[in-house]
Each structure stands twice: as C-alpha cells, then as structure tokens.
Design brief:
Layout lengths: L2 H12 L5 H44 L9 H10 L1 H35 L1 H16 L2 H12 L3 H24 L4 H9 L4 H38 L5 H10 L3 H29 L9
Length: about 290
C-alpha cells in the first residue's frame, strides 16, 4: 500500500461514517439560518423601541419638560444605577405575590374545569357564580380582601389569583370539551374509563387552550399583585409607585413601572418557552 493510499484511508477512518460530515455541516447551517431568522424577526421591534426612547429624550430636551412632570430616559437609567437597592428590595415581594397568585389561581381553575366537564350539574351551579365574580372590578374586591386578610402577603396573592382565574377556567373548560366526536366514540368502543379519557385524550386536547390562557395570566398576575399593594401595603412595587407619585419622584416612579413591566414580560416569555417545549408534538400548521 502506498503512502497516498495510507493517508486516504486515515482520512476516511477519522472522518467517521459516510455522510456524517455533510450532515453536520447541514445541521450547522440550519441552526445558523434559524438564529439569523429569529433576529430578523425581532429587529423591527428592537428598532421601534430604540426609536421611541430617542424620541422621548428629544421631546424632553426640546420642550424643556421639567423632571417632576416627566423624566428623561437618562434620568430613569440613573435611578436604576443609584437607587437599585430600593427597587430590588421592593421587587421581590411583588415577584413572590405574582408567582404565588399565578400558581394558585390557575390550579384552582384547572381543577374546577375538570369538575365541570365531568359534572354538568356542577357547571350549571357554579359557572354563573364564577362569571359574576369576574364582573366585579378587581379594584373593588381588593379593599375587602385587605380588611379580611390584613396587609400581609395573603390578600395580594388572592387578588393575583382571582385575576388569573377566570380566563384559565373558560379556556380549560372549552379545551377539555374540544375532543372530536370520533375520538370520543373510539374511547367508548375501547371501554375507556372517564379517568383514562381525561388523562389520555382531554388533557392533551386542552393544552393549547390552557397555554393561551396562561399567557394572559402571566401578565395579569403582576397587575393583581401591584393593585393589591396599592390598597394596603408598605412594601412591593405597588407601594413604591404610590410613594413616588405622592412625593413627585418622577424618575423613581417611571423606573418602578418599567421594572413591573419587565417582570410581566419575563413571566410571559417563560410561559411561551414552556409552551414550545411541551407542545412540540403539534404540527406547525396547528401551532
């Protein structure tokens, strides 16, 4: 065997199975293309956000708006740098209230939806009550809960749970009932028990509806926690908003609002990522 043949054999042996290198290149190109495509989709939103911030700064400078009326973006950034300890100290109570309310409200809604699907009597009896409770403005319920539960974490968690509850209940009931008549007939022919139908058919069918509701609840739970802090609290982003408003600390007020909005966006993003991970079985046409 010649030296050239030996080198050729060594290269073919080290390169692995035939086609593996080409497959790796194609996979890398696909990942690169997917990454660039995601950034192209996000670019308009990034450009629009930067443009609005620049316009905001120009309006403040050109019209000479005083800081206690409306701060500039630079003033807000300065607050994050200089008063970050106060912001984060009040951030964590709101975070805990929002996440606890999100979990409690959605879990109760899912359990009630399962009960309603298996009991038409329960649905006829309690569904109208849920609708009635949802019609009451949350700002009117908050003082009642503060009087009943005090100024601690409990009323804020309940308010956040209430504001998450109804959208999840409605979507979950519809999702659990969304199985096709053919699938229901097939499960009946297979002598499947109601429990088997629930876990093997209904819950899978309801997941898209559930996540649609969870996306709404992921932002409204933050609103509920902040509203509860407005009514009666000495801590949290809601209390800091009230304190900054009454003392004309406009930069701190804007920074607190942006921090609360960032919390809501983070919850929404986490819910979206969880949906993509759990619903990978769905085809792109039904996603």
């Amino acid at each position: 065997m010649s030296v050239g043949d030996t080198n050729t054999l060594a290269k073919s042996t080290s390169s692995g199975p035939p086609g593996s290198t080409a497959t790796a290149v194609v996979s890398k190109q696909r990942r690169s293309g997917s990454f660039s495509r995601r950034w192209r989709n996000r670019l308009p939103a990034i450009v629009a956000a930067v443009g609005l911030i620049v316009l905001w700064q120009l309006i403040i400078v050109v019209f000479g708006v005083r800081q206690f009326i409306a701060p500039s973006p630079l003033d807000v950034v300065t607050v994050f740098a200089e008063r970050g300890d106060i912001l984060w100290m009040n951030f964590w109570p709101t975070f805990m209230e929002a996440i606890a309310g999100f979990i409690v409200g959605n879990c109760v809604a899912v359990l009630l939806a399962i009960w309603f699907v298996h009991s038409s009597l329960a649905e006829r009896a309690f569904y109208p009550i849920a609708v009635f409770i949802n019609t009451i403005p949350i700002i009117a319920i908050a003082p009642i809960l503060v009087l009943l539960l005090g100024n601690g974490f409990a009323p804020k968690i309940v308010i956040a749970a209430l504001i998450c509850f109804f959208p999840t209940l409605v979507n979950m009931v519809r999702g659990l009932k969304s199985i096709s008549p053919e699938m229901a007939e097939l499960m009946r022919v297979l002598s499947a028990s109601p429990r088997e139908v629930l876990f093997k058919v209904r819950l899978y069918a309801s997941l898209p509806y559930l996540f649609a509701a969870l996306k709404i609840a992921s932002t409204t739970c933050v609103i509920g926690a902040i509203v509860g802090e407005w009514i009666g609290s000495n801590f949290g982003l809601g209390a800091l908003i009230i304190e900054a408003t009454y003392n004309f600390r406009s930069p701190l007020l804007y920074a607190t609002v942006f921090l609360g909005a960032g919390l809501a966006v983070s919850f929404f993003t986490a819910t979206t990522l969880a949906e993509r991970w759990l619903l990978r079985w769905r085809s792109p046409t039904t996603a």
